Amino acid sequence: MTRELPSLEIDGVTVRFGGLVAVSEVTLTAPAGQITGLIGPNGAGKTTTFNACTGVVPAASGSVRLGRTVLDGHGTSKRAARGLGRTFQRMELFDSMTVVENVELGVESFLAAGRPFGQMFCPPGERRKIAARAADALELCGITGLARRTAGDLSTGQRRLVELARAIATPFSFLLLDEPSSGLDPEETEKFGQILLDFVADRGVGILLVEHDMALVSSICSYIYVLDFGRLIHQGPTAEALASPIVLEAYLGTESSALDSAAESIDGAEAAHA
Ligand SMILES: Nc1ncnc2c1ncn2[C@@H]1O[C@H](COP(=O)(O)OP(=O)(O)OP(=O)(O)O)[C@@H](O)[C@H]1O
After folding, report:
1. Which of 171, 199, 224 is the last residue of a domain?
2. I need a surface site. Which of 3, 46, 134, 215 has the fewest CB within 10 A?
3. Which residues form the ABC transporter domain (predicted)?
């Protein structure tokens, strides 16, 4: 029987840094088995929203749930143990370790956190489980051939895939991905997007994606939320949201070229389906 995976529910979350309201009463739902986009200009509050979900910063008000599990009041490790995984804007790989060691470490830490003296003893059978999950994730990301390479020797594109493999090898029930395609060229980005689509279709895990690459957003997210100055200014199906005057205005002068490229890729996709 496959387990039912949760949606992420953010309900009226506000985060303040002194007098600055970085996130203001943000409410969103990101369902299981889909990639939901969270976009907005620089400084709009996207990463802070992720930080509030994972417990890195306290929310002044509001609530975060994974399905029926309330995450409020827990620290970062407990929220991860409840199933909320995350990748960071800046890559957090261990450069002196091999690719497979990096990926296995993610799984090992997750499993160890769930039992007493977990970091000291690895029960028989668990090592095989960890290796199997890591091998599966490397294959899904198309990097099995890099398993024994040292992470620090890899290109940015390869390192992004290792980071993704580590996140998907770990048995999280929902993933927050913060600009995961940053530094990739268009070909690598397209491949990366396809891996994400295959992953959610195959495993049913939900993803909330923060991303500046609008061509990627428009090709893999069916629904997006748009933040500006900490507030949600729009939500809706991707094509509609990216064409919305209020969204265009928020991006004007900052990322209008990014939206142009998104519009081109939406037009291209529509033409291909016609
Ligand atoms: N720890 C902090 N202390 C004070 N201000 C902060 C802190 N973290 C973020 N901010 C401020 O909160 C606002 C939202 O920042 P945040 O990093 O969430 O934006 P973002 O949408 O993720 O931006 P970007 O796309 O550039 O990563 C910004 O004005 C930022 O300067």
Report:
1. 171
2. 3
3. 8-254
Protein residues whose CB sits closer than 6 Å to any atom of ligand 1: 17, 20, 22, 40, 42-48
Q: What is the mean pLDDT of the chain?
A: 88
ipTM of the complex, rounded to two decimals: 0.97
Clarify whether residues 161 and 274 are in a common domain. Answer: no
Q: What is the average per-residue pLDDT within 148-174?
A: 93
Task: Check residue 150 and report its DSSP letter.
Answer: B
Q: What is the CATH number of the domain that holds 34?
A: 3.40.50.300
Question: How many whole angstroms from 115 Cα to the centroid of ligand 1?
Answer: 35
Per-residue pLDDT tens digits for 178-229? 999 988 899 999 999 999 999 999 999 999 999 989 999 999 999 999 999 9
Q: Which residues pair with residue 208 across a beta bridge?
A: 36, 176
Q: What is the pTM of this model?
A: 0.88
CA–CA dist 200, 139 (Å, integer) = 15
Cα separation, 160 vs 153, in Å, equals 13
